[in-house]
């Protein structure tokens, strides 16, 4: 499992639908979260889009404040030319020594407030052309491209990125146009947290489309988490999170979401229908966040073992990356890491131990050769004791 956390550059909160306990996204607070996430052993951190703070600049400011953390930086193709974005990505990749990942965000609306007036399918057509150029530039090619939305001549990136052939591309979207872009271009397809059966349908479709392009794609899922020592404590925490959410706030939020062009947002709304009495839509999967929050609207709720078992159900259908978050971000990053990471480590060590065997070949004359395979479990435990980092302990 690749486990990421989310950095709340838009601000943090303790209760949905209330200003009580809100925290401003000061640089000190964001740095505090990033350093905690880095030290706890998360592999990376998602920096989303938003109108408050630019994810590129925030991520750059955190490179020297962290040691191993990868930055999954949200990037809108419609607001930056591909050649400039390629230089920015290669530069960040060099400065961070390979800690850049890019989350391509086409957008659930026209983005008129950012000067973009393309309709839904045109935005994805633009993203298709954009990534065709961006990938070619990062591969070191000289690019001449004349499409409907992107035109460029004699373009070339003058230095190679640190990561070859380029920093990995992540991408989400549920419409047919989005799935086609994912199949053609990206490394990791991200989806919001639907029940496993629905998520599996989406995975299978992306796999089918990717195969038509001669490609394979990995899969990630975006979820909130509420982990406590007992199931009861976890569900009580979930109810506290929405204690100030009333019917008027739900109705207003759902009406706003209904105006979105996002197919993913429509699917999120269908999970709960705006009703408070049917929020556990699958075992330990709670849709309460989606009552008043757009985007990822579901949370895994329970004790550590229950949440981990639900995560394993997602890995069984093909997900290997989990992009998680919680309210407030700092505290919930600790709740999850302290509860679930030991379980991930436990199973990883068991798998490594099962794979650690002695293999012998028959002696040839007087020459007896003993071949011993690398003992991954012993090495993992040794690395863990040396630096206390889960990610380094699980690294092959």
TrEMBL record:
The reply to whether Transferase figures as a keyword in the UniProt entry is: no
Domain (Luciferase-like) spans 1-320
Which CDD domains does the annotation name? Alkanesulfonate_monoxygenase
Looking up Pfam families in the UniProt record yields: Bac_luciferase
Q: Molecular function terms in GO for this entry?
A: alkanesulfonate monooxygenase activity
**Catalytic class of the enzyme:** oxidoreductase
Q: What is its EC number?
A: 1.14.14.5
What are the GO BP annotations of this UniProt entry? alkanesulfonate catabolic process
Arranged from A to Z, the UniProt key words for this protein are: Flavoprotein, FMN, Monooxygenase, Oxidoreductase
Provide the family line: Belongs to the SsuD family.
The record, for NCBIfam families, names: alk_sulf_monoox (TIGR03565), PRK00719.1 (NF001939)
Q: What is this protein called?
A: alkanesulfonate monooxygenase
Per the UniProt entry, what species is this protein from, by scientific name?
Answer: Capsulimonas corticalis
């Amino acid at each position: 499992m690749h486990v990421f956390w989310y950095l709340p550059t838009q601000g943090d909160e303790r209760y949905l639908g209330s200003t009580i306990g809100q925290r401003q996204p000061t640089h000190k607070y964001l740095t505090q979260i990033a350093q905690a996430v880095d030290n706890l052993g998360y592999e990376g951190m998602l920096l989303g889009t938003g109108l408050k703070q630019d994810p590129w600049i925030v991520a750059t400011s955190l490179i020297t404040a962290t040691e191993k953390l990868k930055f999954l930086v949200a990037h809108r193709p419609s607001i930056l030319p591909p050649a400039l974005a390629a230089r920015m990505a290669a530069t960040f990749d060099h400065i961070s020594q390979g800690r850049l990942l890019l989350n391509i965000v086409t957008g659930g609306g026209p983005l008129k407030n950012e000067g973009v007036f393309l309709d839904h399918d045109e935005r994805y057509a633009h993203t298709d052309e954009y990534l065709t150029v961006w990938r070619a530039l990062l591969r070191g090619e000289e690019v001449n491209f004349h499409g409907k939305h992107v035109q460029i001549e004699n373009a070339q990136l003058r230095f190679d990125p640190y990561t070859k052939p380029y920093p990995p591309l992540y991408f989400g979207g549920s419409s047919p146009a989005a799935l086609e872009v994912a199949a053609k271009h990206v490394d990791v397809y991200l989806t919001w947290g639907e029940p496993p059966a629905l998520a599996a349908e989406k995975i299978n479709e992306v796999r089918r489309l990717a195969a038509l392009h001669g490609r394979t794609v990995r899969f990630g899922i975006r979820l909130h988490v509420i982990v406590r020592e007992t199931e009861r404590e976890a569900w009580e925490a979930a109810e506290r999170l929405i204690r100030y959410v009333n019917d008027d706030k739900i109705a207003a939020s759902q009406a706003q979401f209904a105006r979105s062009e996002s197919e993913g947002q429509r699917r999120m709304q269908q999970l709960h229908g705006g009703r408070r009495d049917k929020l556990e839509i699958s075992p330990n999967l709670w849709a309460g966040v989606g009552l008043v929050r757009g985007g990822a609207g579901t949370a895994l709720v329970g004790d550590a073992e229950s949440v981990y078992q639900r995560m394993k159900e997602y890995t069984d259908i093909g997900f290997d990356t989990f992009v998680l978050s919680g309210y407030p971000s700092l505290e919930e990053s600790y709740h999850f890491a302290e509860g679930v990471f030991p379980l991930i480590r436990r199973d990883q060590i068991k798998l490594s131990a099962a794979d650690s065997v002695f293999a012998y070949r028959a002696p040839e004359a007087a020459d007896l050769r003993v071949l011993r395979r690398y003992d991954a479990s012993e090495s993992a435990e040794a690395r863990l004791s040396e630096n206390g980092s889960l990610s380094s302990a699980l690294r092959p």
